[in-house]
Amino acid sequence: MYDAVNLPLRLNLLEAHEAAWRTIAAPGAFWSGAERLAIIAESRNALTCAVCAERKEALSPRAVAGEHDKLGALPPTAVEAIHHIRTDPGRLTRCWFDEVIAAGLSVEAYVELVGVMNTAVILDSFSLAIGAGLTPLPEARNGQPSGEANDAVVDVGAWMPVQAADTDDGVGGLPKIPMIARAMGRVPQAMALFFSVVRQHYKLTDFPHDLSRPQIELSAARVSAINQCFY
After folding, report:
1. What is residue 162's DSSP assignment?
2. Measured between alpha carbons, how far apart are the two ends of the chain, in Å?
3. Residue pair 131/154 in contact by the 8 Å Cβ criterion
4. Nearest Cα residue to 79 out of 69, 88, 89
5. Contacts of 102 (CB under 8 A, 6+ apart)
6. What confidence score (pLDDT) does residue 108 get?
7. Considering 10, 40, 106, 160, which has the largest number of Cβ atoms within 10 A of its Cβ?
8. What does the pLDDT look like over 106-125, one tens digit per residue?
9. Angle at 14 between CA 9 and CA 19, to 5 degrees
């Protein structure tokens, strides 16, 4: 991976990226390997969708009618979720989420879809940043989704039930389990995939970083603000 780029990349980072692509190509909890790869392909495709571009410029995304420029491998509800999350995440609403779920996308399938999408965004962003281009999607692995979900969830007023956790604060007043992990905790496999890549970039492991944790948090907060990150 990234052989064409002459850069001193960490071995554990390369191994994590390769492992993530293998995992994405395999069946998940609620999507098959082929469907998970189709989610990534549709996420990439959303960046050139004419309807998404028009919605992004409109005062309200609901003011723009029309069908997404879609690849055709996924149901319309999944396509709508992927395109809106990828192109206009700052204006996601509870009403929109409820409509997506009511249209047939289960909460668990939604969580896995978001986990796969966001993992691929990290991988794609890194690959583009180092000049390697988008990584070709691997071949899907056979098998059926496991249907595995975590039943230890609670209602905390969020859009969906989140993983139950100790509410005591951790170091520096931060929660011991971050809300992003709790939000994905309904589908442990999706959470594990996402954090297997995140921890290689976000000082969640013990290997040396040139940036301190506060510097990383400052950079992440600034990038999130520029990208209008809802979270």
Report:
1. E
2. 31
3. no
4. 69
5. none
6. 96
7. 40
8. 999 999 999 999 999 999 99
9. 175
- Give CA 30 to chain center in angstroms: 15
pTM as predicted: 0.89
Q: How far is CA 223 from CA 21, 86, 216, 229, in A?
A: 25, 15, 11, 8
CA 139 – CA 71 distance, rounded (Å): 17
SS3 63: helix
The tokens for 205 are 């492991």
Q: Roughly what angle, to the nearest 10 degrees, separates helices 76-87 and 107-129?
A: 50
Per-residue pLDDT tens over the stretch 71-97: 999 999 999 999 999 999 889 999 999
Higher pLDDT, 221 or 114: 114
SS3 assignment, position 175:
strand
